[in-house]
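REQUEST ID: PR-0412
SUBMITTED BY: lab tech R.K.
PRIORITY: routine
TASK: structure prediction, single protein chain
INPUT:
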Amino acid sequence: MARAGGRPRISIEGRFEEDRDLFVRALARGLTILALFDVEHPQWSLDEICLHTGISKTTAYRMLRTLEWKDFVVFDPETELYHMGRATIPGAYLALSYVGFVRGAHPFLERLAEVTGETVELTVEGAGGAVVVDQVATTHPFKPNLPIGRILCSVANSSLRMHVAFRSEAERQKILRSAQLRLTPHTVTDPEGIASQLATAARDGVSYDIEEQDLGVCAVSAPVFGADGDVKAVVTVVAPSERFGPREKKKNTDAVKRTAVEMTRYLSRATTAAG
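STATUS: complete
OUTPUT:
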């Protein structure tokens, strides 16, 4: 059972308004290049970078040479591929502020996986989508391909949809104005349909992916709130469609919602204790 990751990589945020007074186009292009590198795509060729960013080869090459000089990327002359450089390591450790949260959340994921018998994953908000930060695999022989660190960038995914459902109205409208790819015959792509899904997710505190992102794969997600009332993370149960009939759907839904409430309480207690 395979489950697609973050590609094709299309930002759900839409294009930045490049005419703003404080917008530095050259910096934005360089950051766009750096944003391509992730756990699923650790290396890129110059041609691939140009294809995915829309930046001309001459400009992309100059930017890559600058990033290489500053040690943000490294060029391998044998493979002719670029990968992340040592200058990115301090920032990576800074991002590990999530580690404490993930470590504390892991036992909840283990119990949820035991109750449902399915793969469980945890995502947090990231640039351009939601990032998978932890998972517990099913004990069944066939496991979904869910690498930690992958980026979910389609609202066909129940986890990202749950994150988006609690964003501001302006942010939701921006997403509705951007084109959504039809990943399967079940993918909802029209703005009205997506808006209805987001409203339902916010109202019910649960969202579903019934073969919308990948054929043969279903999922149910619920939000975990921080002490400030914002969505801190989203917990998801992923299962093959043959194990997601009405009975299993209800069981998984009840379990994921219960776990999300328990994790929310845990975060509240942890915040109170830290204060």
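NOTES: The longest helix spans residues 246-274.
REVIEWED BY: pending
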